[in-house]
Design goal:
By secondary structure, this protein is of the alpha/beta class. The protein folds into three domains: 288 residues, Spore Coat Polysaccharide Biosynthesis Protein SpsA, Chain A (Alpha-Beta Complex); 103 residues, no CATH class; 235 residues, no CATH class. The protein is built from 26 helices and 20 strands. A seven-stranded mixed beta sheet has the order 3-2-1-4-16-6-17, sandwiched between helices. Strands 8, 12, 13, 14 and 15 form a five-stranded mixed beta sheet that branches. A three-stranded mixed beta sheet has the order 5-18-7.
Length: 687
């Protein structure tokens, strides 16, 4: 839709509007003209069956010249505005060129000591991808909590073929740090091209951005790489994003957290009892080797422990207990040939040292161990059921990731080098907000604005982000503040834009408060409000793709979307009442932003009129998830009763509020220079 728009119209659009109010050069019309030419030139190469990522044809040279001009212009503009030091190439360019490194992963972080190690470990343990392709750039934004030392130690201890760099950004703000990391990677890629003369690298190389509190499925980098390697017309991949399901269990009163550093301290005097595992223990995928039903507490030669059944081949691994945690729960330790540890507990929980908060197994084990109280049912749906539903509806129920046009957040979104250079990344601001959330979304919007394609990654290779923002949103709801980033009832850009403040320092305090909220709050407010997000997101995208499809292809789109959710009768009613032929005709006459906004309005109309069928799909999806994972019905049926009659939050308006107000209370101690909340002085009111 945007490839044919005049540049003047693009520059006036909402997709690039935040650049004009931010501390960054205004969007350059020439860059967008060049980007449109690059899209056209690349499409022509693909039509001629010429691979634009390989310098094997003179026909490609024109495309590479355009890409080179885009990257060079971007770097010159950034050097002029921010200073040359902000765009210096990384060290060892000749070595990077010789290794043909083409995947650059920028991790921006500030004071992420509780999380940064898990983030980096999840990237060092990526599978099915040549590690010699990968460069990790850890970009530190003035950390003061020991994060810097953690990262430097991981770099020293790195035994993989992944290349790692540590850099420091002194300008405050996560967006400024991401900009610094991305621009140094772009400068590096440009110099690599100068070194060997291969400018196809500008199409082939790609740059991703991650926060310092996010963990990644072990096949995520491979999945994104395969998409960009296979589909040369795609400019960006956004991984399938959910919250850390294991971390979400901290909100439940009977849950016991198991942190590797603490567990290691319990076994200092019993290291000789650590069992050698012939099986890898590096990531959550490795846990699948040990089925839950085949974990048995028993004694072997008078030594109590847990016998782990292995796969379906009748092998087993006995892990004797070597210590107990403070609650008295016993555990043993297994270690693979690379030194990766697994802590095996008598309640059959397995915690991996390299992936302590990754994967969804905790959701199943916690139900088998009666960790979730009956009076935490709606809390479970608001914090755990929501994300299980979201992933499983795509993994197994039949919804298609191909029908989603994703936002692109700093959860390892990944873009081709030349397309990232059209707008780059930077700290967003508005006249009333010094630092705006959505910095990460803006780069994807810019790519979409000139016709670049961004696609959603596989739901089977997902991203898990930290739960701090989720906890704050729930706290906001409890305080009659309907704000996640922006107001939850706002449209598109406004909903994604709010005042950004780093909140790792107060995360424990917020979690403790949310942990004590009664279940009626989650039933009446938190779950109904939160479940709107995935429902609306799905339907908005499905309506958009259905509208844009040729009439002959619409049935195919419906079979991968609406007809997975609704029965034939309900889908027919939706077509007659909401997604009518007249409405589809009107939709296709709208510009991109208005098109997306109208699709969202129509999705809400569907939710208001057909709430019960949506909740039936939610219930059906969770039932399928539990059955597929062999969870006995009596352990979960109580969770799924009464869901179809839960409150439809869209039937009521929420109080209007300026997003700034959620941080305006005097209870918050804020370091405004660094953009960080340091403390909560007192609880606002009892819940």
């Amino acid at each position: 839709m945007n490839a044919s728009r005049p540049v003047s119209e693009i520059l006036d659009s909402e997709l690039v509007s935040l650049a004009y109010t931010s501390d960054v050069p205004d969007p350059d019309p020439k860059q967008f003209e060049l980007a449109k030419k690059a899209i056209f030139a690349r499409a022509l190469l693909i039509k001629q069956e010429i691979d634009p990522s390989k310098a094997n044809s003179e026909d490609s040279e024109g495309f590479y010249r355009i890409c080179r001009e885009i990257v060079d212009s971007h770097l010159e503009s950034r050097k002029s505005y921010f200073g040359p030091s902000q765009c210096e190439p990384l060290p060892d360019v000749e070595e990077l060129t010789k290794d043909n490194r083409d995947i650059f992963l920028v991790i921006k972080f500030m004071d992420e000591a509780p999380h940064i190690k898990a983030t980096i470990q999840s990237l060092l343990n990526q599978k099915d991808i040549n590690h010699r392709r990968i460069v990790i750039v850890a970009a530190d934004n003035m950390s003061k909590d020991g994060s810097s030392e953690i990262v430097k130690e991981l770099i020293r201890e790195n035994s993989t073929e992944i290349k790692m760099f540590y850099i420091q950004q002194e300008t405050p703000g996560g967006g400024s740090t991401a900009r610094y990391g991305v621009d140094r990677c772009l400068a590096t890629i440009a110099e690599m091209c100068e070194t060997d003369g291969d400018y196809s690298r500008l199409q082939r190389a790609r740059i991703a951005v991650s926060d310092g509190d996010t963990v990644y499925h072990p096949k995520l980098v491979a999945d994104s790489a395969q998409t960009l390697d296979r589909y040369q017309e795609v400019d960006g991949v956004m991984p399938f994003l959910l919250y850390k399901i294991t971390a979400c269990h901290r909100f439940f009163k009977r849950y016991v957290a198991r942190r590797p550093a603490q567990l290691n301290s319990f076994i200092d005097n019993n290291k000789e009892k650590i069992v050698v595992s012939p099986y890898s223990l590096a990531n959550a995928e490795d846990l699948r080797r040990f089925p839950r039903a085949a974990r048995r507490v028993l004694s072997e030669a008078g030594q109590p422990g847990v016998m782990l059944g292995v796969d379906l081949n009748n092998d087993s691994l006995f892990v004797p207990f070597v210590a107990s945690i403070d609650s008295g729960l016993r555990f043993g330790v297994a270690e693979d040939e690379k030194g990766n540890r697994a802590y095996v507990f008598e309640d059959r929980t397995i915690t991996l040292e390299q992936a302590a908060v990754s994967g969804d197994e905790t959701a199943l084990i916690s139900l088998e161990n009666n960790v979730i109280n009956k009076d935490e049912k709606w809390k479970w749906h608001a914090l755990i059921g929501h994300d299980l539903f979201l992933t499983w509806s795509f993994q197994k129920m039949g919804l298609s990731e191909e029908l989603i046009l994703p936002d692109t957040s700093d959860a390892l979104k990944i873009f081709r080098a030349w397309s990232f250079a059209v707008g780059g990344q930077h700290q967003l601001s508005r006249p009333n907000m010094e630092r705006v959330t959505g910095t990460d979304y803006q780069s994807g919007r810019v790519i979409q604005s000139f016709g670049g394609q961004t696609v959603l990654g596989s739901s089977k290779a997902y991203t898990e982000t930290e739960v701090d923002r989720l906890a704050k949103m729930i706290r906001n709801f409890a305080n009659d503040q309907s704000v996640f980033y922006g107001h939850t009832r706002s449209r598109g850009l406004e909903r994604a834009s709010g005042l950004y403040l780093h909140m790792t320092s107060i995360q424990d305090q917020v979690e403790a408060e949310v942990r004590d909220y009664g279940d009626s709050f989650f039933e009446q407010i938190a779950f109904p409000e939160r479940i709107i997000f995935p429902f609306r997101w799905m339907l908005q995208n499905f309506i958009g793709y259905y509208a844009r499809a040729n009439a002959s292809d619409r049935e195919t789109v419906a079979n991968k979307s609406f007809k997975v959710i609704f029965d034939d009768s309900t889908w027919t009613s939706i077509q007659l009442l909401i997604v009518t032929n007249d409405e589809l005709l009107k939709l296709n006459q709208l510009p991109f932003e208005k098109f997306r906004e109208r699709c969202e309005e129509l999705s809400e109309d569907i939710l208001i009129m057909f709430w019960k069928p949506m909740m039936e799909f939610y219930t059906r999806t969770l039932t399928s998830y539990f059955n597929d994972h062999h969870l006995e019905a009596h352990l979960y049926d109580w969770l799924l009763t009464g869901l179809t009659t839960c409150r439809n939050a869209l039937s009521e308006n929420r109080p209007d509020i300026d997003p700034n107000e959620v941080w305006a209370s005097p209870e918050f101690v804020i370091d405004h220079e660094r953009g960080q909340v340091l403390n909560i002085k007192e609880v606002m009111r009892e819940q």
